[in-house]
Write a structure and sequence with these properties.
Elements lengths: L7 H11 L5 H7 L4 H23 L1 H9 L5 H9 L3 H25 L18 H20 L3 H8 L6 H10 L3 H30 L8 H4 L1 H10 L15
Helix pairs in contact: 1-3, 3-4, 3-6, 3-7, 4-6, 7-9, 10-12
Bound molecules: zinc ion (2 copies).
Amino acid sequence: MKERVTGKSRILTETEAKQEEFNIEQDLRKIRGCPVCNHITNILADFFAHLQYELSNDESTRHNYAEELGLCPFHAWQLESFSSPLGIARSYPTVLEHVASILVTRAETSSRSPEKALKVVRDSATCSACHLLEKIENNYIKHLGLFLTDIDGRQAYACSHGTCLKHLEQLINAVSAPVTVRFLLLDEAERLKRISADLRNYVYKRDALRRDLLTNNEKDAYRRALIKTASGRNVYAQGDRGGSL
Ligand SMILES: [Zn+2]
Ligand SMILES: [Zn+2]
């Protein structure tokens, strides 16, 4: 019989095992956006879907979630997008009552003990989804770097859409061979120029009322320009800490 999942840490362990399941060659062939962002998005979607189900149905998961003070605001809202009002109504009383008990304890002890900062909201340094994201990201980038060490890997990468600029920075920091670094820099420069040309053609053809002549690359160039410069939608919180989460 399948063992029942009984807590947030268990969900994290299962998700971490799942994040090892990827095929870089296939990802490069299939994905029009950044393969690292795409992998993070898929694994976190699985994590949030699993977590909302367990929060809705399992008391020990609710207890764990409350003890850990939930997730950072950005990831709490991502969790919300996988939940229903009923699911949140089932999950959050435990969180609110736990925080209420912290506030009462603080009110009763604050005049007797030295003041410490009140910490009842998670930030990216203490959020388990942020930590998970960082692990997924580092692991995928490490494997992508290894994939690029041989010429076949670099050729497959050159035929793909490449990573977003944020992940290019991390990839360049992760690879050591000068030939790979040079390849990545020049490859990306060419790629950005091609997207730029597609954008200019898009504007030109729209202005000239020649929408019928637009190519598929020109039609989605705006989206690829945003992914390059701002990473996949909803992968990173605006204004979150620089580098990696
Ligand atoms: Zn990316
Ligand atoms: Zn977070």
